[in-house]
Every structure is written in structure tokens, then in C-alpha cells.
Amino acid sequence: MDNRTEILLDKLTYSYMELKQKLYYLGVTEGDVQNLMLQARGYLKALKEQVAVPSIQKPTPCGKLRSVDETYKLIIQNDPESSITKTGLRRLIATGVIPSVRVGRNIKLNYDAVMTALSKGSTEPAREQKTSYGGIRKVV
What we know:
The protein is 54% helix and 8% strand. The protein is mainly alpha-helical.
């Protein structure tokens, strides 16, 4: 048992002993206590049925999760003229443009989410090249 369980058990035992002591002073017998407990248990069951809380379900991923290679093959299969590469796809995953799930060392993608992200395009303005003056420049 963990520490919290032991503390709760101690509190419950203490409360039970207090209740027994008070009932003894009132002249209530052990049989009466058992009958009261059975009635209380019945009331609790009825109350639980009235206040039934729907179970909370975990959200499930919408669609099948695929590896980066499988997703890339699907993209090429659906659009052979596509200019995206596996490396480009991996860069979009690394920057967070395409949502992904890590399973150990593997990266899993939802094909529909990938297509949605690719159809949106980039919201960032194109980068401007900085021109530096008075320094050593790379010869192109």
C-alpha cells in the first residue's frame, strides 16, 4: 500500500471507532447498525443510478497514423508531379508545420493532417537575404 492509502485507512478506522462509541452511548445495538448500513448501501446504489456520470472517452486520432516514408509514398502516389521531397517533409515536421507523433524513435503522421498543412502553405513572408558590406564574402 502506498502512503495515501494508509492515511485514508487510518482515518476511516478512527471514524469507525468514534461512530461505534457514540452508538454505544445511545444504546444502539450491533444488529441495528448492520441494518442501517444495508439501507444506506441501497440508498447509495439508487443515488449512483440517478446521478450516472457519462464516462469520459479519450480522443482518438482521426485517421491512420503512418511513417514518414509511407506518407511520402502516398503523396507521390496521389500526385506524381509533387515537388515535395522526403527531406522537405522531415523539415516541415521538425519545424512543427506538420503535426506528428513520436513513438519511440519513429515519427508517425496523419495523412489528412499532412495534406491540410501542405494545402495551407506558409504564412511566413519570404526571407530576404542580408547583404553585408565591408567583410569577407563568400565567392559564388
